[in-house]
Amino acid sequence: xxxxxxxxxxxxxxxxxxxxxxxxxxxxxxxxxxxxxxxxxxxxxxxxxxxxxxxxxxxxxxxxxxxxxxxxxxxxxxxxxxxxxxxxxxxxxxxxxxxxxxxxxxxxxxxxxxxxxxxxxxxxxxxxxxxxxxxxxxxxxxxxxxxxxxxxxxxxxxxxxxxxxxxxxxxxxxxxxxxxxxxxxxxxxxxxxxxxxxxxxxxxxxxxxxxxxxxxxxxxxxxxxxxxxxxxxxxxxxxxxxxxxxxxxxxxxxxxxxxxxxxxxxxxxxxxxxxxxxxxxxxxxxxxxxxxxxxxxxxxxxxxxxxxxxxxxxxxxxxxxxxxxxxxxxxxxxxxxxxxxxxxxxxxxxxxxxxxxxxxxxxxxxxxxxxxxxxxxxxxxxxxxxxxxxxxxxxxxxxxxxxxxxxxxxxxxxxxxxxxxxxxxxxxxxxxxxxxxxxxxxxxxxxxxxxxxxxxxxxxxxxxxxxxxxxxxxxxxxxxxxxxxxxxxxxxxxxxxxxxxxxxxxxxxxxx
Length: 512
Fold this sequence. Notes:
Layout: H1 31-47, H2 51-84, H3 91-111, H4 117-134, H5 141-156, H6 158-169, H7 177-180, H8 182-202, H9 220-242, H10 249-254, H11 258-271, H12 280-284, H13 296-305, H14 309-314, H15 319-343, H16 346-357, H17 362-374, H18 376-386, H19 393-412, H20 418-445, H21 452-477, H22 483-500
Helix pairs in contact: 1-11, 2-3, 2-5, 2-6, 2-8, 2-9, 2-16, 3-5, 3-21, 4-5, 4-6, 4-9, 8-9, 8-17, 8-18, 15-21, 15-22, 16-17, 17-20, 18-20, 19-20, 19-22
């Protein structure tokens, strides 16, 4: 232990019991709930990883893919939508989307503690699918922007809800699978661009066309929305009809349904071909310690506790912890603005700059988008390897990948033809996927366990709020100039520099 006063640099290996401790070790709001949650954590750990968790892993992967699939879809249809509706400020579509993402994260994140994980888990993709399909019939820009905001309300809930569902059924020994889920994020971009190439590449107006862009000539983006909405609907059916999702034991226990919570644990154990020693008495014994709140207001209080001032102050209780918390929030904020500022407009940039190079056809634009997406898959995998590499570690991998992401963006401004622009963008996408894989693994580890929920909430909020700013910056910076690229590149470089001064390296250490 190198710095006990900061209470975060634990170097000992966590025991089995360590892996079942709750995020918040004690609760002023509901100590009975916390005690029972610890019992359920132990029961899940004893069952271990089995068929139920592996099936759930795939279905949660659908949610992870939606978190990238739909923002990418918005960027892919942006050039076609802007041409058809003669929109002078195309980034407004991304602005509507980002507002929906923020609303969805808040609504579903808090809502799943009130009306249940199971309902939220199924409805997030269902909402996305319905409004994605309806968007194909949009008669004007205002309509497609409205539907983008509405489908994003569903998309915004995928990560907070799916991660909660997965973690509550996942043994602590397999929590590394949360990092592995990033492969679905990269595959989603590949899938979207693969579908977009034939549909948008051959059925879209070109910026080089001199006449008006009619609906019949520009129907590709509508077919694309039907394809993406249809895929989301298939994912919804697989979740809702094919797979039987058991309600979260912790949610049931929080509602006072201890018997149902125990029954769920035994159902999971049975599906995994095992048995669980958990009994109703193991939970009810903790009722002697006080009265557990079981109504919706009690559930909401438990959720709000993660972001109350007590836990916020805990992350700033010493100079070193305050410094670490501030820096990691700044990194998430910088990336939250930099990534969508460029990534959301890649097809638009490829087509407009391609036109300047004399080869801005829609076919080449979406072919290039597909090639760029392919490079994201190995990037996500390599990121998962780098976080466990000695001498490099989390900090080294994050600093290197973030800095290189910015460098390659600056390099793209020097491109003299479409091939060189494609090369710079491939390098950018590869490094940005490495960056995200490392960032998702590193961030939770540098917060003390009992305050980790608050820390994650702060970093996610910083990321979403700055994401809303990205299309606003794009509007006033002019997408047809290199200004947004310079801003985005500078922010990535700033985030990379900030990573170098983070005080904690979590490789090989167990978080507090």
